[in-house]
Amino acid sequence: MPSGSFGARLMEQIDELASLVERARVIAGFTGAGISTESGVPDFRSPDSPWRRHQPIPFEAFLSSPEARREAWRRKFAMDDIYRDARPSRGHLAIASLINSGKMPAIITQNIDGLQQEAGVPAAKVIELHGNGTYAACLSCRARQELAWIREVFEVTGDPPACPVCGGILKSATISFGQAMPEEAMRRAQELTLACDLFLAIGTSLVVYPAAAFPLIAKQNGGTLVIINREPTDLDAFADLVVRGEIGPVLAPFIGRRD
Ligand code: NAD
User: Fold this and answer.
1) Alpha-carbon distances, residue 241 vs 16, 130, 177 (angstroms)
2) Do domains 1-41+88-130+182-259 and 42-82+133-174 have the same CATH topology?
């Protein structure tokens, strides 16, 4: 925790956050890659991010080109090796406590790492806007497939296998550039955003749309908007409270609480 006047300011912000949480009726949580950096998963926009080493492979290229699919799977397995040992952060555990307290009906996340579920939040209460990278799905029949056997086949043959159910193309269950957003997740995120009186945006640069629209929708609907991030974001000017600090120490006091 920083010391001196900056530390004092941060403590005030944390106290204000605690009283907003205490007074809130319905809290919407909205997380980005920043909640997982303490877990060892690099975020997207911080310097030297491994996620930006390559140009993204657009969905259309993935569909039309076997080589693009091979490259996507090569990258996927290389990234998986980077954060294979990642465990939930204090931020994930604090969100789990807020959900268990009943005040936060669900967490909306842009993350694909599955760490919020690992922190004990039932999958049904994690609204994943950009999908989930811990498994794969068939683009035709939607059947879920596990990554381990896909990797085994890929490493032996140099090609990803076809869907064992229908022969369709298998893809990590994430949303690529150019791929349609998941309708059900978007609908649920919108509903929670409109139902909440407190919206907590945590660890997101708030530049990826349409996801980044939710904090503004909450604010326009009369909700209180809090942004917790170590760096400024484009939406700070709209927030009722900006907590400029590390998510771990800021949210740690909420772990185990039942406000
Ligand atoms: P981003 O990288 O654009 O922004 C993350 C923000 O969190 C940054 O502003 C950074 O300063 C801040 N941050 C990082 N660690 C922090 C910490 N410990 N405490 C406080 N602030 C911290 O991430 P985004 O807005 O989520 O957008 C990136 C996109 O890339 C998302 O759509 C997401 O799907 C994807 N992505 C996901 C993961 C993941 O699942 N963990 C990781 C990288 C990228």
Assistant:
1) 8, 26, 32
2) no
Of 1, 17, 43, 130, the one to substitute when testing ligand 1's pocket (max ligand atoms within 8 A of C-beta) is: 43
CA of 182 to the centre of ligand 1 (A): 20
Question: Token match 């609480």: residue?
Answer: 257
pLDDT in tens, 45-58: 888 787 878 889 99
Tens digit of pLDDT for each residue in 83-140?
Answer: 889 999 999 999 999 999 999 999 999 999 999 999 999 999 999 999 999 999 999 9
Q: Whose CA is nearest to atom 30 of ligand 1?
A: 44
Ligand 1 neighbourhood includes 231 CB (under 6 angstroms):
yes
Q: Where are the domains of the chain?
A: 1-41+88-130+182-259, 42-82+133-174
Gap from CA of 258 to ligand 1 centroid (Å): 27
CATH homologous superfamily of 1-41+88-130+182-259 equals: TPP-binding domain (3.40.50.1220)
**Three-state DSSP state, 200:** strand
- What does the alpha-carbon distance between residue 160 and residue 108 come to, in Å, rounded to a whole number? 31
